[in-house]
Amino acid sequence: MASTRPLGEDISAPSTPIVSFLGPIASYTHQVHTLLQYERPPWSIGLTDHDLAQAALANFEADQYDYEPAQTISDVFTAVQSGEAALGVVPFENSTNGAVIFTLELLADRHNTYPDINVCGEAYLDVSHYLLGHKPTQRNTSTDFQVSGSCTPTLSAPSPVQPRTKPLCDLKHVERLYTHPQAWGQCEIFLGTYLKGIERIDVSSTSRAAEMVKEDTSGTSAAIASSLAAEIHGLDVLAKGIEDRPDNTTRFLIIRKGVDDKAKMSHAKSKSLISFSVDHRSPGSLAQVLESFRKYALNLTSINSRPTKVTPFQYIFFVEFEGSKLSDPEGKVKGALENVEKHVQYWRWLGSWEDKLEREK
Question: What positions does the domain ACT occupy (predicted)?
Fold first, then answer.
């Protein structure tokens, strides 16, 4: 079965390169590894993402790559920084629920733990969440299940938002829910309608949530995870497509140690990411930094922040913008970054890569 070589792989390397991903198997990050490969492989033409997931699992031991699941996003960073893994894939943001805080925290790198981590690519995955668990012993054959009053019109909410889907069985037996923290905000309408007040437990990944539900012999737990996780762990699908929006999409960043020399040859539309901190006592300091990008006609694509954890209510900012430091014939990025340096306490370039979202339009 053919496969494409991932971005930045050293073809002269004597051993098979390792790709580290947030596991266990069947996590959405794993599906990005096995499905996308930065370029869809020739054998995948005509297959759906679900077909690809199964085909990719069958090819998991491919001779070109070794895929190793990590327990946490931090473990992915550590594997790449140490050189144990050639590449890592980490979730960065979701179209419904915003930035993935865990990844931003690691990119903030306050203690210089990951000095060589560099973003070299991105991947987008349409995410459809399934409610997985065990069907109740007494199966309700009716499709009109009792729900909470959250969808009942009130004076304050005369037209409450309705969930996009209904459960496939009665959910009265569900006492606790497991998933990755990022998934809660993507499924609030369904959860608030059919599982209001049910205990929510954060776990390291959606696939780990499915594992834990499988291990719970009481049958009263449920997980928000992928349809692939249901197949792998032998769980019942209690509801399909419970995400709030049909266009729910997660963006993943591909990280490596050091700079990909091949990227200097690329002339495709690119994006770059930097982090920086400013003197919060100086009025307009952040505005001066952002003006650097306007001055050189560089469009900003996202802005995020995290606390410095040095002084309360002071922040590390993350700015993503169109343009590449590695391929900058007009000198726009160089000029903007030189201007940024004049107005910050410190800054760090976190990488440049091909804009996959723009390419897919």
Answer: 274-352
Torsion sign (Cα): 111, 113, 118, 122:
negative
Angular region, 213: left φ>0, alpha ψ -120 to 50, beta rest: alpha
Backbone region of residue 191 per phi and psi (left: phi > 0; alpha: psi in -120 to 50; beta: other values): alpha
Q: Is 277 helix (H, G, I), strand (E, B) or coil?
A: strand
- 290 Rama class: left (phi>0) / alpha (psi -120 to 50) / beta: alpha
Cα–Cα distance, 229 to 211 (Å, whole number): 8
- The residue with tokens 């930065």 is 38
Say whether pTM exceeds 0.85: no
Q: What is the CA radius of gyration of the chain?
A: 22
Place of tokens 């959405």: 28
DSSP secondary structure, 167-228, as one string: -SS--TT--EEEE-HHHHTTSHHHHHHHSTT-EEEE-S-HHHHHHHHHH-TTS-EEEEE-HH
Task: Single out the residue of 205, 197, 164 nearest to residue 181, CA to CA.
Answer: 205
Q: How far, in Å, CA of 145 to CA of 190, rounded? A: 13
Domains of the chain plus CATH, in order, are 18-126+249-258 (3.40.190.10), 130-239 (3.40.190.10), 264-360 (3.30.70.260)
pLDDT of 294-335, one tens digit each?
999 999 999 999 999 999 999 999 999 999 999 999 999 999
